[in-house]
Amino acid sequence: MRNILTLALASLLLLCGWQPANAQQYWKMGGNTPDTDTTIGTNNKKDFILISNKLERLRITKDGKIGIGTSNPNTIFHVAGTKTMGGNLTFLKGSQSIQFSNPGSNPHPMILMFK
């Protein structure tokens, strides 16, 4: 009987969201209101993955590359699929370019624009 009461109490506390005073902030459905900056992610050499509807939508790799629509980003920011952009694309400084790649077997860009 004692074990059943202990289990029931532990379950109730868990369902109510109780944490010990020294517990780390946890992330709740519907949002949080932290008093200081907080983080969410991994503390080891594993990728951080966001999913919706059981499908991967965004991945931050262990080496910092961000992939949207791809589970294997090969550049610092890799977006796969059809893209729509509203607004301006602004280059901050240095030498940048926009390359519209040839979808065929030729690896050279079809259009290359420099700022």
Could you please describe the fold and organization of this structure?
With 115 residues, the protein is an alpha+beta fold. The chain has a domain at 44-82. 13% of the residues lie in helices and 24% in strands. The chain is built from one helix and six strands. It has one helix spanning 2-16, and strands at residues 48-52, 55-60, 66-68, 77-79, 97-101, 109-114. The strands form two sheets. A four-stranded mixed sheet has the order 1-2-3-4, with no helix packed on it. Strands 5-6 form a two-stranded antiparallel sheet. Strand 2 (55-60) and strand 3 form a beta hairpin. The chain is elongated and about 70 Å long. The N and C termini lie far apart (75 Å). The model has no long low-confidence stretch (mean pLDDT 76).
Write the layout of secondary structure elements.
Layout: H1 2-16, E1 48-52, E2 55-60, E3 66-68, E4 77-79, E5 97-101, E6 109-114
Parallel strand pairs: 3-4
Antiparallel strand pairs: 1-2, 2-3, 5-6
Protein traits:
115 residues, alpha+beta, two-stranded antiparallel sheet, 6 strands, 24% strand
The amount of helix comes to 10-25%
User: What series of H and E elements makes up the topology?
Assistant: HEEEEEE
Radius of gyration: 23 Å
Distance between the termini: 75 Å
Shape: elongated
Q: Which structural category fits the helices and strands?
A: alpha+beta
Main β-sheet, in a few words? Answer: 4 strands, mixed
What's the arrangement of strands in the largest beta sheet? 1-2-3-4
Mean pLDDT: 76
The overall strand count is 6
